């Protein structure tokens, strides 16, 4: 089965790129450097653009990041065809500062409750939409299963996909009511099954809204590509998806792999080539790791993720999940549901068992403690041979 006729979504302009409205599926990636490291960020934006990206995203979390972004934009806009997007985390008001330098802004509905709690979410969304309209930029409503609004989490309980979908539908309706229609939506999780289910459920209600597809924290190649391919093959073959991002944990200079993998998946689905899934894929050890971005506080995170994967190969047949996260934004929450979590900070790593921190260790010694903890988890689950 080849790529199905695309859903007739509205067209959303992002710089010189169109998302939806029958346009080719746009492929994007995200800079893995610290935004304030201007030289490295410019180099990576250019590297990702050279790999064929349509949209390149950077993260902004402070006024210093904004100043760096201004310089990055100035040094890449003349010769980089790709549109520039920015990822706002917990400080939604920074959109006023970054909007003049980008083509699109992504905000996370689950983070809007953190600041200015005396204001309603609708007031905050109205501020975001007004700034976007004034600066002629697009928006992405980026919902993640792991960071949904606490009220939604309480309402839906174990149905975290339902909470994610309702959050996305609610924000799409708010933007529509405000008269702002230049937006796309993403519904992401590290579990490809939830990505497929969430997007299908959203499309059943709002088939007109362009969708950004992605399996967040897919991990390292090849498993990260396989997880993403499974989700994309199902959704794209149903005509769902207008732009995609393959999120891989790779060294900074290899971020172009995300673009290459994304284009290969699209080409295969369009040609009706569906890759077989390895037998028992996903049944044993599951390693989740974020794709690294400018929020990563220590570049040793990427090497640590690779070392953890190698160390844990002896447990490949055991149903154990290990999550390795590179920043304070995703670290605490995204590791809670894993058997073992490594939340990486600037100087050391918080080693967790479920939602409990069992110790804080330097990068050069945490692997030994993680190995011991893995043995404990295997034994406690009665999985030891």
Task: Describe the overall structure.
With 385 residues, the protein is of the alpha/beta class. It has two domains: 12-270, Dihydropteroate synthase-like (TIM Barrel, Alpha-Beta Barrel); 296-380, Sulfite Reductase Hemoprotein, domain 1 (2-Layer Sandwich). 37% of the residues lie in helices and 19% in strands. It is built from twelve helices and 15 strands. Strand 6, helix 4 and strand 7 (138-144) form a beta-alpha-beta unit. Helix 5 (150-156) crosses helix 6 and helix 8 (223-236) runs parallel beside helix 9. The chain is globular. The mean pLDDT is 91.
Rounded average pLDDT:
91
What would the CATH topology of the largest domain be? TIM Barrel
The named CATH superfamily of the largest domain: Dihydropteroate synthase-like
Give the SSE string: EEEHEHEHEHEHHEHEHEHEHEHEEEH
Number of domains: 2
Strand content: 15-25%
Strand order of the largest sheet: 3-4-5-6-7-8-9-10
